[in-house]
Structure formats: C-alpha cells, structure tokens
Write a structure and sequence with these properties.
This protein has about 190 residues and is mostly helical. The protein has 4 helices and no strands. It is about 90% helix and about 0% strand.
C-alpha cells in the first residue's frame, strides 16, 4: 500500500510539472504573439509610400518651422532693406515703403501656409492612426493580462486540489503506518 501511495504521489508530481510546462508554453506563445502584433503595426506605418506632394509638404513644413528658415529669412529681409535704403539710395528697385517686399512676403505666406496645413493634416492622420494602433495594442495587453490572471487563478486552484489529494494520501499513509506500528506493538 505504501508503494502504491508513493507511486500515486509521484504521478501527481509529474502531472503538476506537465501542467506547469504547458502554462509556461501558453504564456510564451502569448508573449510572442503580442510582439508580432506590435511589429506588424510598425511595419504598416513604414510601408506607406508618400506622394510627391506629401514629401514636398513635409519638407517645406520642416524647413519653414526651423531656425535655419528664420535666420535665412531675417537675413534676406535685412539685406533687402539695407540694399534699397543704403546701397541703392539714388535708384532703389523698391523704395522706402517696400511695396515689392510686402508683395513677396505676402506671396511666401500665401504659399507656405497651405503647404504647412497639408503637412499638419497628414501628421494629424498619422497621429490618429498611431493612437488607434496604441489603443489596439493596449486593449490586447489588457486582454492578455486578464487571461494571465485567469491562468494563475486556475493554476492556484489546481495546486490546492493537488495538495488536498496529496494530503489525503499522506493521511492514508499515516493511518497505515499507525496500524503497522500497532501490529508491531502487539507482537
């Protein structure tokens, strides 16, 4: 009877080890699946090819919002004013109220503003897509966390069940040992 109980305990331990290995595999597969989803989202964003107009809009917006543009444009403005006010004093091509300069500035602003708005609209679309992708990944992570909680709860419940069976088996073994000891005492 003791050998049979020991064999049963050994089988319980092997079963528990197999279940733990199975749970580890499930968790690892879930983790791998999560990583693949994250990689796919990044790959989708990189695969999108920009049109010529979109590339131009991005470059103009990038240059128009830089210190390089501010310094360059300020230099052109000061150069224009110095050229027309001090160097070409007798025959300036744009005298003091600088009407031609105002026309050039208005034209630059009129062309630059819509291009920058196109770039901002595209950036807004990209931001919405990224937010949606982040939401989907976070939702998947939340679902996976819930699944992990369920798996851990199941594992704890199964461990309690196995521990209860082991305890019952140990009690039987103790009873058998006590009966064996009683028999030996009688003899």
């Amino acid at each position: 009877m003791i050998k049979r109980s020991a064999k049963y305990l050994q089988q319980l331990m092997e079963t528990e080890s197999a279940q733990l290995a199975k749970l580890h595999k499930i968790v690892q597969d879930t983790y791998d699946e999560e990583a693949l989803i994250s990689q796919r989202v990044c790959e989708e964003n990189q695969k999108k090819h920009l049109t010529f107009g979109e590339r131009i809009a991005d470059r103009v917006a990038e240059f128009g919002g830089s210190w390089t543009f501010i310094i360059f444009f300020s230099s052109v403005l000061f150069g224009w004013i110095i050229l027309n006010s001090f160097i070409l004093v007798k025959h300036p091509f744009d005298p003091y109220p600088y009407i031609l300069l105002n026309l050039v500035l208005s034209s630059v602003a009129a062309l630059q503003a819509p291009v920058i708005m196109m770039s901002q609209n595209r950036q807004g679309v990209k931001d919405r897509q990224n937010a949606e992708n982040d939401y989907l990944i976070n939702l998947k992570a939340e679902i996976e966390v819930r699944h992990l909680h369920e798996k851990i709860d199941l594992m704890v419940e199964e461990q309690y069940h196995h521990l209860f069976k082991i305890q019952q088996q140990q009690l039987k073994m103790l009873e058998e040992l006590q009966s064996e000891i009683r028999k030996l005492k009688r003899e």
